[in-house]
Design brief:
Belongs to the BexD/CtrA/VexA family. The chain is an alpha+beta fold. The protein has three domains: 131 residues, Outer membrane lipoprotein wza fold like (Roll), CATH 3.10.560; 92 residues, Outer membrane lipoprotein wza domain like (Outer membrane lipoprotein wza fold like), CATH 3.10.560; 76 residues, wza like fold, CATH 3.30.1950. It has eleven helices and 16 strands. Strands 1-15-14-16-12-13 form a six-stranded mixed β-sheet. A five-stranded mixed β-sheet has the order 8-7-11-9-10. A three-stranded antiparallel β-sheet has the order 3-2-6.
């Protein structure tokens, strides 16, 4: 079947295929749509972390100036952590003169003021300072193509998405950067990390919230299939690249075969696996001139696309001959045998 048959075909085929020529106007509209899809949801950009709230498992170091017996019960020579006070699982801690105090959900300043007020009954004008020396109650979790998937603690210093990803370390050989999922409060936000980086590092503007879950999928199913008259027909993987261009895909396959290819018949077939719901789109690039590859470099292929390069007319004719000549030779031999036998 010729490439013309692939695109034009029968009337029935035409109802399932939409032929689109790759032009500067098409690329401009695609870029506008890509910019819109890469936009960060406004609720992620506007979120600002609240002051840190103390929770079960945190360790607090409480200083009461001029009262070492309250500040360092384990001895002044000990470090802060041994002198720290652990918040129990029910959110309480014990403090001298005060007893059990429910601190779960308090900010550091809330607790400082509460301790100052309660100690004022026993200590004249107490000067109290509170620090968290062990953050253990609030975390962000990771899953997928990261080198480190250990939970990261939320501290009094706000944590951004960019910082968290940097600590988790992306696996460069396996990660699919185009669909990082940030799960928060029952909602999934899908983010394209490459688009964020192209947008001047907007990941640094997204603050994480306790309980956030970050999933980075693997790229093992992300391939474009380059077929037809190219040097090396192959499946081209995206690796960590999320915006593979048509020119790049053809380049990885060795480019168009200079002898057998028809530069006018470079097609990108998209959506052929869902013809029952929507017609497939076939994008055509006329690559007979070098300037056409500038268009191809701006056209982004997607996972599952089939890039097909048609054969030149003389190539199709030669293939027809290669199929006909053996049959003609057999017929000629049979005719000669019959003629010799009759004479």
């Amino acid at each position: 079947m010729s490439t013309n048959g692939l695109v034009r075909g029968t009337p029935t085929d035409n109802s399932q295929i939409q032929l689109v020529t790759i032009t500067p106007q098409l690329l401009a509209s695609d870029h506008a749509a890509a910019t819109l899809s890469a936009a960060i949801p406004q609720e992620l950009l506007t979120y600002r972390p609240e002051p840190y709230r103390i929770g079960p498992g945190d360790t607090l170091f409480i200083t009461v100036w001029d009262h070492p017996e309250l500040t360092s019960p384990a001895g002044a020579q000990q470090q802060s952590l041994p002198n720290g006070r652990l918040v129990r699982s029910d959110g309480t801690l014990f403090y001298p003169y005060i007893g059990a105090l429910n601190v779960g959900g308090m900010t550091i300043e809330d607790l400082r003021l509460a301790l100052t007020a309660k100690l004022a009954k026993f200590v004249e004008k107490p000067q109290v300072d509170v620090n968290v020396v062990g953050y253990n109650s609030q975390h962000v979790t990771f899953q997928g193509a990261f080198m480190k998937t250990d939970p990261q603690t939320i501290t009094a210093v706000p944590l951004t998405l960019g910082q968290a990803i940097g600590l988790a370390t992306i696996n460069p050989d396996q990660a699919n950067l185009s669909d990082l999922t940030l799960s928060r409060d029952g909602h999934d936000y899908h983010l394209d990390l490459t688009a964020l980086n192209h947008g001047h590092g907007a990941a640094k503007d997204i603050y994480l919230k306790p309980g956030d879950h970050i999933f980075l999928p693997y790229n093992d199913t992300k391939e474009v299939y380059v077929m037809g008259e190219v040097i090396r027909p192959m499946a081209v993987g995206f690796r960590t690249v999320t915006d593979l261009s048509l020119t790049q895909a053809l380049g990885r396959a060795g480019g168009l075969n200079p002898v057998t290819s028809n530069g006018k018949e470079v097609y990108v077939i998209r959506g052929a696996n869902d013809l029952q719901n929507a017609p497939a789109k076939v994008f055509q690039l006329d690559a007979r001139s070098p300037s056409a590859f500038a268009l191809g470099d701006e056209f982004r292929v997607e996972p599952g696309d089939v890039v097909f390069v048609g054969a030149a007319g003389i190539t199709r004719w030669n293939r027809v001959l290669s199929q006909l000549l053996p049959a003609a030779s057999l017929l000629s031999s049979a005719a000669y045998t019959n003629y010799s036998a009759s004479h």
